[in-house]
Amino acid sequence: MRIAGRAHRFGDDINTDYIIASKYKTTSLDPAELTRHLMEDIDPGFAQRIRPGDIIVAGRNFGCGSSREGAPVVIKAAGIGAVVAQSFARIFFRNAINIGLPVFICDTAAINTGDDLELDLEAGTGRDATTGALITAAPLPRAMINVVRDGGLAAHIRKHGTFQIA
Amino acid sequence: MTGKTMSEKILSTKSGREARAGDIVVADLDLTYSHDGNRPLAMELLSSMGTDRVWDPSRYILFLDHHPSPNAVSAAAHTKLRQFAIDQGCQLYEMGDGISHVVLPERGHIAPGDLVIGSDSHTCTGGAVAAFTTGVGSTDMAAAIATGKLWLLVPETILIQCDGALPPGVGAKDLALAIAGEIGADGANYMAVEFAGSTVENLPMDGRFTLTNMAIEFGAKAGLIGSDAVTEAWLAPRLSRPWMHLRSDPDAVFGRVVHIDSAALTPRIAKPHAVDNVVSIEDVLGTQIHQVVIGTCNAARESDLAEAARILRGKHIAPGVRLVVTPSSRDTMVASMKSGVLATLVEAGAVIATPGCSGCAGGCHFAVPDKGENVLSTANRNFKGRLGNPDSFIWLASPATAAASALTGRITDPRAYVETAA
Asked: pLDDT (tens digit, 9 = 90+) per residue, B361-373?
C-alpha cells in the first residue's frame, strides 16, 4: 500500500485527549462528526485544514494517555493516510494496527509541515519529496504482521477463531 | 537459567510456556472489564469477531463509572451496557459504585498471579496486588471477550527501588510524581515497572495502588508490587478463592534499576500540561488555585480522604476556592461516612460528588473549570483540556497538598499542617 500526502508536524507526547478531547465522548458517537474536533485543543482549525491522504508527523510517544480507540478511529475517519512518529505509546499502537490505521515508526526530526511524503507501507520505506530525504521504518512486531495481513484484528479472529500469531 | 520477574512468571503460567522478556505469547485471561467511557464500546464490536457470546460471562465485568451524571448520549450507552450484562449474564457495577480500577481489587475480583485486561489505560492499578493488569482498546477487548485470550509481548521490567522512610507530609503520591519526573512520560513504554524497597514494603495498600495507578503515566504496560504480609492482610476479608504469593526472583533480570531515596523526598507538583513536568513544591508555592479536586482512581481512597480531613478538621477552605471530593468507590464513601471523615470535609467547605470518574475525564460534565483557572488535583493526568476546558490549567499533587492548598487558596506546603495536626 502506497500513501502520498502532505506532512502536518506535531511534537512529543501527543496524548489521546489532544487527538480527540474527552468532553466529546458524550456529545456524539459518530466518528465522522467527531473528526471536526481532531487535535482541536492543541491546534484549533487542524480538522478544517487537512486534505484526504495527509500525514500526521510527530515526535516521541504519540498517542500516550487514555486507551480510547476513538483516537485512531477519528484520525482514520478524518482521512489521514498515516501517522509517522519517532515512537508510539503502546495501547495507541495496538489500536491503530487493530483498526487498520497505517502507522510508521521512523526518524521524523527532519520532516516539516508542508513536506510532501511518499510512504510504502509494506516495504517500510519512503521519502520526503520536498527535501529528498529517504525514510526507513522500523519493522512491525511479527505478531502484528498477521493481523495487518488479515485486514485488522476482527478479520483475523473471524478467520482463525483465535489469535494466530506465531 | 536466571530467575524471572513477576511479569515473566505470570505470562509463563498463563501461556503454558516458558516466557521471557521479548517473547510474544498468547495468554489465557483471568478477568476482563470495560466501562462506559470509551467509544466504540467493546460489546459493540463483539459480533465483528464472529460470535455474539462472551466466552465466559463470569470473567467479564462492566462498570458505569465514567459518566456518573449521564447526559442523553451517555444514558443511552448505560442502557446498552445494562442490557448487555443481562443478556450475557455478566456482572455490572452501577453508577455510584465507584471506579472500576478501585472496585475490582476492593471487592475481591483480582488475586496475586492473575492476568487481567481492562479497556482503560489505568487498568495497571490492579498490579498492587501482584497481578499483571494492563489496558487495551475496544477491538483488543472484543477479541479477548470472544476468545478468552490476548496476545502480549512479554515486557522487560524496570525495577523502581524506593528505600527509606517518607517524611511526614510526604506520601505515595509524591513518590509517584517523583518517579514520573525521573523516568519521563515514555520512559517505560512497552515495559513493566515493579515498585520495591523498604518504602513500598511500609506502604499500606491505598498508597500502593496510588503507585501502580501511575505506571501508565510513564508509558508502562503494567505496574506491579510483590505480595507480602500487607497484601495478605488486605486481601483476607475480600478474596475467597485460594491464592499464592508472587514476587520476582532474587536473580531476575531487570532492564533498568532506578533508585529513589524516599527520605529525601519533598511534596511534589506536576505542573500543567504534562505528568512528567514535576517540581518540588518550593518552586511553585503561592500559585493561586481556584479549584481543588480530591478524587479519581489515583488518590481518593479511604486513607487519602482521612489525610485531607486531618488537615481540614475544624477549619474552612479559603474564600474563592471550591473543594470537590469524589470518593473513589462506594466502599470508600461508606467507610468515610462512618468514620466522620466526610462530615469533616463537608464542614470545611467541600462538595461531595458521586463515586466515579467525576473531576478527571472531561466527559463527566462535572467540576469543569473556567478559562484561565488553576485546578489542583489528586488525579494522575493534567493534560490540557482534561477537565473539559482547554483554557484551564491542571496541577497534580497529593491529598495532603490538596487539603493544605484549599485552606489558603494557594499552592501550600502540607508539611507544617501535618505536624500541627499530629
From this structure: 866 778 899 999 9
H or E stretch covering B378: none
Inter-chain contact B50–A157, Cβ cutoff 8 Å?
Answer: yes
pLDDT band per the 50, 70, 90 thresholds, residue B420: low
Q: Tell me how far apart the alpha carbons of residues A119 and A123 are, in angstroms, rounded to a whole number.
A: 9
Nearest 5°: the CA angle B189, B191, B192 is: 125
ipTM: 0.95
Task: Report the C-alpha gap between B204 and B191 in whole angstroms.
Answer: 25
- Statement: residue B422 has pLDDT above 50: no
- All three cell numbers of B230, joined, read 500487607
Give yes or no for A157 touching B (CB within 8 A): yes
Query: Which are the contacts of A109, defined by CB distance < 8 A and separation ≥ 6?
Result: A86
Task: Give the span between the Cα atoms of B288 and B182, in whole angstroms.
Answer: 26
Among residues B216, B241, B214, the alpha carbon closest in space to that of B380 is found at B214
Nearest CA among B287, B281, B320 for reference residue B398: B281
Q: Which residues of B touch A25 (CB under 8 A)?
A: 37-39, 66, 74, 361, 363
If we measure between CA atoms, which residue out of B114, B153, B150, B111 comes closest to residue B132? B114
Q: Nearest residue of B to residue A153 by CA position? A: B139
Q: What is the largest CA-CA distance in chain A?
A: 46
Is B43 within 8 Å of B177 (Cβ atoms)? no
Q: What is the pLDDT of residues B108-152, one digit of tens each?
A: 999 999 999 999 999 999 999 999 999 999 999 999 999 999 999
Of B205, B270, B279, B271, give the one whose Cα is nearest residue B235.
B205
Q: What does DSSP assign to residue B364?
A: G
- Grid cell for residue A4: 502520498
* The three grid cell numbers given for residue A35, joined into one nine-digit string: 473528526
Written as nine digits, the cell of A165 is: 500469531
- Cα three-residue angle B172-B162-B357, rounded to 5 degrees: 30
Phi then psi for B248, rounded to 5 degrees?
A: -70, 145
Outline where DSSP puts E strands in B281-405.
291-294, 322-325, 350-352, 374-377, 393-396
Q: Measured between alpha carbons, how far is B393 from B386 in angstroms, rounded to an integer?
A: 9
Measured distance CA(A82)–CA(A95) in Å, rounded:
14
CA distance A140 to A154: 19
Q: A45 CA to chain B: closest CA distance, Å? A: 14
Q: Kindly calculate the radius of gyration of chain B based on its CA atoms and give it in whole angstroms.
A: 20
- Contact status of A150 with chain B (Cβ, < 8 Å): no
Q: What's the DSSP call for residue B377?
A: E
- Grid coordinates given for B30: 483471568
Q: Cβ contacts (< 8 Å) between A61 and chain B: which residues?
A: 185-186, 189, 219
- Rounded to whole angstroms, how far apart are CA atoms B29 and A48? 43
Could you read off the pLDDT of B244-301 as tens digits, one per residue? Answer: 999 999 999 999 999 999 999 999 999 999 999 999 999 999 999 999 999 999 999 9
Burial of A37 (0-12, 13-18, 19+ CB in 10 A): buried
Residues from chain B contacting residue A141 (CB–CB below 8 Å): 24, 153
pLDDT one-digit tens code per residue, B212-240: 999 999 999 999 999 999 999 999 999 99
